[in-house]
Amino acid sequence: VNGARAGVHKPNPKYTLTTLTAAISPVPRSVRSALKDPNWYAAMQSEFDALQANQTWRLVPRPPGARVITGKWVFKPKLNPDGSLARYKARWVVRGFNQRPGIDFGETFSPVVKPATIRTVLTLVATHNWPAHQLDVSNAFLHGNLQEKGFSQQPTGFVDPRRPDDVCLLTRSLYGLRQAPRAWFERFVSHVTSLGFVQSKADSSLFVYNRDGATAYLLLYVDDMILSASTPSLLRQVIARLHDAFAVKDMGPVRHFLGINVRRDSAGFFLSQSQYADELLERAGMANCKPVATPADTKSKPSSSDGALLTDATTYRSIAGALQYLTISRPDIAYAVQQVCLHMHAPRDVHQAMLKRILRYIKGTLRMGIQLRAARSPTITVYSDADWAGCPDTRRSTSGFCVFLGDSLISWSSKRQTTVSRSSAEAEYRAIANAVAECSWLRHLLGELLCKVPSATVAFCDNISSVYMSRNPVHHRRTKHIELDIHFVREKVAIGEVRVTHVPSARQIADVFTKGLPSALFLDFRDSLSVTTGDVATAGGVSRTTSPTARA
Length: 552
Prior knowledge:
Strand content: 15-25%
Number of helices: 15
Radius of gyration: 27 Å
Distance between the termini: 69 Å
Largest sheet: 6 strands, antiparallel
Structural class: alpha+beta
């Protein structure tokens, strides 16, 4: 295809659109085969037209000694949530890995919205009963303005016949450039702030509009957005203003965001990743496995030296990494996934057995997800727990917490502590400090979302010594080395922002995030986390899911 001219390649007459609509055309292995297929050729032409309309480059004679970045066409069919074909997608991607740091690009970091922020915003949207739409930006990275001078080759198959030896002087970013995500994000922030939105300090990818009693929330994850407004007219107005600067497509009420199925009902929003979980089981070869009741057993944690090393750890790492994304809507597997991820560097057969158990549990709970309900009052409740010295290799403890906004679970964590605790009280107290830090961030986030939290955050802990340490300014010889955490929590308690309270172990929901539990207790706590197949009402009209507030 070298030296090809724009408009020279025509679809092969033996291919017709009508003969290819029943099935997806195979992804081409070369540009030559793509140019012969009318579906992929149309996708390439559409991408090239978008590049031209966006004035991504201008052709200039190749400067002597200039570093010209090469590129290639990347093809991918886009599918609907039900697996049907949505459209053919072709992208001209440059080989940004050849760029030189500090010369060809500077900053590259671009933030994305946090999952906890998404769940918090959806909970508030359900509370206010506002409309929420999903938006998509076509060719998002092409909108970013470049600060550095760069050259690239002309797209293969679309070389200007009058200037075949010229190169592209880039004025806008291209897919593959190291600075492309950063350039797009800065361009987007500049535009939405000019519309009256204010960028959140708690989450840089959240934007809040508040003027004359009208309010709107905008969440950005690369080129996908969720927009909610207090009135339908404001929603349409914001979409129109965004369309003035970007190729924004209104996808209607949010239904499928970042691979997460979003179903809105009278109770609020139900988030699930059932299709993703099904595909994960197929990829792992466990689509027909036998289900189990819990994702982790009650035995002691395996050591990193138990069992025999796996001959090929690639599959283990791939599946474990994929499971991390599944925890966005499945807090019930957070602890089990955290345990298998601890052994990514050198997985063994016992760790692989743990991984397979998680997949077997997912097989029996494919349709489950997390239910976000309207918050009757803006109260924050947190459960915190720790498994003291549970790691057999380092003797470090495992911390876990879950945070509720009203009756909706919006944030959770299962993580090994960074230092060794000298007592169970110290381990529990460090877990409280982590939970309080998360709650402080959430209170700040809710304040920016114009939802003030009037009452103190109630933090439940099942260790009485930790509760006493949060209230009494006594420096014991066993606790003086954790003075920083003590002062942090005590300050929050003193100003009335947090209240640490004891809860019996039988009602400590955060146990799910620190250890394997018996089936009956695990299922009870799972219901309290609002992990269900959706709200299922009983004959009396009451949901089966236990409210965490009522439980406490």
